[in-house]
Each structure stands twice: as structure tokens, then as C-alpha cells.
Amino acid sequence: MIKPKTLFVGAIALLLFGFFLAVLIQTAERESQSSGKATHPEALVRMHAPALGRPDAQVTIVEFIDPACGTCAALYPAVKEILAQHPDQLRLVLRYAPFHPGVDQVIALVEAARRQDRLWPALEVLLATQERWTPNHRPDVEQARRVLAGIGLDMVRLAADAADPAIAALIAQDAADARLLGVEKTPEFFVNGRPLPSFGLKQLQMLVAEELARR
Amino acid sequence: MRTKMNTLTDNPPSAAWLLLFLAWLVAATATLSALFLGEIVGLPICSMCWYQRIVMFPLAIILPIGLFPDLDRRLIRAGLALAVPGLLLALYHQGIVSGIVPERIQPCRQGVPCSETVVSWFGFVTIPLLSIVAFTTLVVLLGAALYRSRS
């Protein structure tokens, strides 16, 4: 008869082995899936999508961003830094992922600011003051408006533009593309159409370096 | 040989010990599976699932205390104190999924609704069903262990 202690230790070893095997299989499966993620190149970059950098840049980073998402705000400076390191070779294309309920109205304000040529300042000030207008993950449009008033926008025009159905259609298109591309969390990056193998700033930096090395 | 401190660790396990061991095996498997589905696969976790986790996870940790160095009945009782509410929660959850429990008293309205079926293996194996199976097995095993270990 097997000893109880041996039985117990053996069972633990077996359980952990099974668990890590399942983790390995799942991770491998996810990686093979993520390589098939960008099977809709037309959905990746749309004509309406705002972009930073030269249109003929060697490497295009597509970022699906939710202005109310804390990780998006935290990573944004790092993304800008990557861009600043290779200003001539990199381009950032911005796509909206309106995952927080109600954030679409805030995105509409950003798009309205775009019509006053202030899209990036508007987005950046919103990301920097995120806690003020999205307490407890609930976007508050009025607070966002107050933040935007501080960067010298024509607020009357902003309100009128934000209500334009064309802007709502643009946001809806981005949301539909996010769904099509399997974007479920933000921020999600595609570097020359390639998704990150797993989420992280390092992975983004490495993918950018890989694409830059491809001459 | 420590013949006086004759602990179970040195002898073939009794039936009650094996029952408790099996119960721990079920709890540990359920715990690892729940962690796997939530953390690795990334399935959304509704609040009913959290309540069932609250009673399942401790079982995987405390039951071994009742196995070593000797079979300890108090841990079997503690296990039942967790497993029985767990079974009730699992049954209630299944009730929500199958629509037996009216929507009016559905506990989770925000986030992931508990009535949503995120996984269905072979067409009928859902996570709430697995939870019922696990908690039922636990109650039966622990009940039997308590019965067999009575002095």
C-alpha cells in the first residue's frame, strides 16, 4: 500500500504538472491565434483614422485606444517616446476602442477638437487628467469638457461638432473594426499589421525594433 | 521506528483518510481549473462565480491540514461548512442560467451577467454545471469521511 505522504505529494506534483501543461498549450494556441489576428488588413487603417508621423513611414503602429482606459494613459508617454526615437521611420495611427460605457461621447469631443486642428493636444490633456473626468471608470462628459476648455478650444463650436452624426459614424466604424480584429482589451497595438505576442511595453518595443530592422 | 507516535503517515491510510484525500483532490482540481479558465484563458468571471470561488479555494488549502500528520475530523467538518454553502450557491447559479430563478432577483446586473453561458463543452457541460458536480462530490466525500471516521 502506498504511503499517504507519497500519495499526497504525488497528487500535488501531478496537479501542478497538468496545470502548467494546460498553460503551455493555451499560450501556444493563443500565439498561433494572434498571428492570425490581423487577417483583415482593410480594418486596420482607415482613411479617417488620425495619424502622427510621415505617411510613407517604414513602420506603422496602429493603436486601439480607449481614452478612459488607465493602461492606455499610462503607456501613452512611452509610445510617444518610441515615436520620438525614430521620427522619420515611425507612424502612429490612432483607432478608438470605446470600451468604457459612455466614453464614445468623450471621443466625440476629441474628434470635434480635430476640426479645430487640436486633436492630439485634446487627447493628450484628456489622458493626462484621466482621473478627473473618469472617476471610478465612469467617463463624465461634462468633466471632460471642462478639461478641454483649458486648452483654448472654441467650446461652442466643439459642442456643435461633437454632435455631428459623421463623428458618431466614425467611432462606430472603429468599434466595428476593433471587434473584427479581435481587439478585446486596450491598448492593443499592431506593428505593421502584427499584433503583440503578449501584452507589454517591452513586447511593443521589440516588435518595433524587429520591423525597423527589416529593410 | 516511532511505534508509539504511530501516525497515519507510516501506515496504510484508512477509508476516511482516503475519502478526505479524494475531497481535497476534487477541490484542488476545481481551484486550478477555475484559475486556469479565469487567468489564462481569460474568461469573464461573474459575481456568482466569485462567491463559489470564495468557498472552493479555501477547501484546497485547508483540507490537507486534516490529512497530516493524522486524520483530523475537525477539518472534515470545516470542509462541509464550506462545501454545503458552495453547493447551494452552485444550484442557485444554475437556476439563474436555466431561468428557474426569476430575473427580478438576479444578483448581477452590471459586468458579466451570471445568466450568460460563456462555455458549453459537448453541448451541455457548462461551468455552473461543473461547479454543481464538484460541490456535490465534495459534500458526498466529506459526509462519508465524517461518517467513516466516527469513533
Short description:
The complex is a heterodimer of chains A (about 220) and B (about 150). Chain A is α+β, with helices and mostly antiparallel strands and about 220 residues long. Chain A has ten helices and five strands, in the order ααββαβααααααββα.
Folded structure, characterized:
The complex is a heterodimer of chains A (215) and B (151). Helix content of chain A is 58%, strand content 11%. By secondary structure, chain A is an alpha+beta fold. The radius of gyration of chain A is 21 Å and the shape is globular. Chain B has a single domain, classed as Bromodomain-like, CATH 1.20.1550. Classes of the chains: A alpha+beta (215), B mainly alpha (151). Chain A binds chain B through residues 1, 3-5, 7-8, 11-12, 15, 18-19, 22-23, 26-27, and chain B through 8-10, 12-13, 17, 21, 25, 28-29, 32, 35-36, 40-41, 64, 67-68.
Compute the number of strand runs of chain B. 0
Q: Kindly estimate the percentage of residues of chain A that lie in beta strands according to DSSP.
A: 5-15%
Number of domains of chain B: 1
Biggest sheet layout of chain B? none
Rg of chain A (CA only) = 21 Å
What's the arrangement of secondary structure elements?
The complex is a heterodimer of chains A (215) and B (151).
Chain A: H1 4-35, H2 41-44, E1 51-53, E2 59-65, H3 70-85, E3 90-96, H4 103-114, H5 119-128, H6 130-133, H7 141-149, H8 155-162, H9 165-180, E4 188-191, E5 194-195, H10 201-213
Parallel strand pairs in A: 2-3
Antiparallel strand pairs in A: 1-3, 2-4, 4-5
Helix pairs in contact in A: 4-5, 4-7, 4-8
Chain B: H1 15-40, H2 47-62, H3 73-98, H4 127-148
Helix pairs in contact in B: 1-2, 1-4, 2-3, 3-4
Offer a few descriptive terms.
heterodimer, A: 215 residues, alpha+beta, Glutaredoxin, 5-stranded mixed beta sheet, B: 151 residues, disordered N terminus
